Amino acid sequence: MTALTSAPPAASTTALTSGRLPKWAPWALLGVSFVVSAAVFGVAAAGSDTPLADFNIAGTVIVGILLYMVIITVISSIAESRRKAVDRLMTALVATAFLIALLPLISLLWTVVANGLERFDAEFFTYSMRNVVGDGGGIVHAIWGTVLITLTATIISVPVGLMTSIYLVEYGRGKIAKAITFFVDVMTGIPSIVAGLFIYAVFALLIRPGISMGFMGALALAVLMTPVVVRGSEELLRIVPNELREASYALGVPKWLTILKVVLPTSIAGIMTSVMLAISRVIGETAPLLLTAGFTQSLNTNIFDGQMMTLPVFAYNQYMNQGTSPDAAVARAWAAALTLILIVMVLNLLARLIAKLFAPKVNGR
């Protein structure tokens, strides 16, 4: 009786891995690529009278990235494998696309900071532009106007938008829900100046033509904020697992209390993010505020009486009406833009803190 024996499988002639580059190798190759590119463009600019001014930074970066892609692909295909080389090439392409998308933002921030720091002093944040013709003056009236108008718009739009999204997700069915969704989508694409014209027309018919006050600006911003809050909150409420709702119903908790105690706390972090997106969407609007809130050189903290200045309108007014001292007016415009960016950043940080405090705790943390 002969035992049946099977021969062992033949070893694969192609290994899945054929080596690996050190972790520092891609960074070293990237540095070498930029050095070579800089040397080439440096030699090209050396013949001019101003070599530093004629040095092509953008060309250096582009050629350096392209050279890196070629080098990393060739070396990886030799030292590792063809599949790993393609992976490294795709990684370089994705990283390059990310940097290209990031460059305008970095350039914008750098320009605003570089030009806005010139007027970041105590006078700029404690004085208004009342009786100021040339140098000096400040934006305290514009800061108060922006904060009060945006806060009022948020108080109006967030409850309306949040309750609308709750209705669409938890209660809305049939044609009414579809109609609300349709009109919300339409309102999302409304130009900002149309919202300003709408509020101005309503107040001109109800009160008098030519009226301007801060509350009108807040209503115009609320019209723009509400659809953003509705769409963002609706999507976040939909991703709350139905198992959480069913567990609450199984314990005898009514639907309204389930929404208040289970659904909203679960999605509070995302809802705060959507609210901040809505605030960021409207806090820099200029056209609707020019029509509704107007502009003034004095401090006004009463949104129901008289015109109010806001930071976007202040920056626009300073740049377009430079007066007897153009350099001072442009410096005030840049400083107002930087202040607006800082306010948005502070609001985002506060939103993150609020979301962290009210979010449901996991494992006691």
From TrEMBL:
Localization (cell): Cell membrane
UniProt keyword Disulfide bond, yes or no: no
Entries under Gene3D superfamilies matching the protein: MetI-like (1.10.3720.10)
Membrane-spanning segments: 24-45, 57-79, 91-113, 142-168, 180-207, 213-230, 262-283, 333-355
GO MF annotation terms: phosphate transmembrane transporter activity
Pfam families: BPD_transp_1
One GO CC term, this protein: plasma membrane
Family recorded in the similarity comment: Belongs to the binding-protein-dependent transport system permease family. CysTW subfamily.
UniProt function note: Part of the binding-protein-dependent transport system for phosphate; probably responsible for the translocation of the substrate across the membrane.
Identification of the protein by name: Phosphate transport system permease protein PstA
Lineage: Bacteria, Bacillati, Actinomycetota, Actinomycetes, Micrococcales
